[in-house]
């Protein structure tokens, strides 16, 4: 159930989105050590974002996963910021990341919960 939601003020051409999503899906699976078949990506480009009083390239990211180890969130932050820099030229100081590890009984899938 790893889920990555990426909101950015960068416009991403519709034809470039599938490849970006595929790269992000692989990256999240590798980062968390989870099967890619469970990874969900939500991309919201071209959003109205103002960070630090400027509309320079920025991103808000949510990473949710069952059992997400809190001790590894600094590593995940570093990896995600590096990836956003490579992919979208967003500086790390222009990224906020929210990490969440929902309880298994509060996350549903396939007509049940985990």
UniProtKB/TrEMBL annotation:
Its EC number is 5.3.2.1, 5.3.3.12. GO terms for cellular component: extracellular space. It is an enzyme of class 5 (isomerase). It is found in: Secreted. The keyword Ribosomal protein does not apply. Keywords: Cytokine, Isomerase, Secreted. It catalyses: L-dopachrome = 5,6-dihydroxyindole-2-carboxylate; 3-phenylpyruvate = enol-phenylpyruvate. GO terms for molecular function: cytokine activity; dopachrome isomerase activity; phenylpyruvate tautomerase activity. InterPro entries: Macrophage_inhib_fac, Tautomerase/MIF_sf. This is L-dopachrome isomerase. It comes from Thiohalocapsa marina. The lineage of its organism: Bacteria, Pseudomonadati, Pseudomonadota, Gammaproteobacteria, Chromatiales.
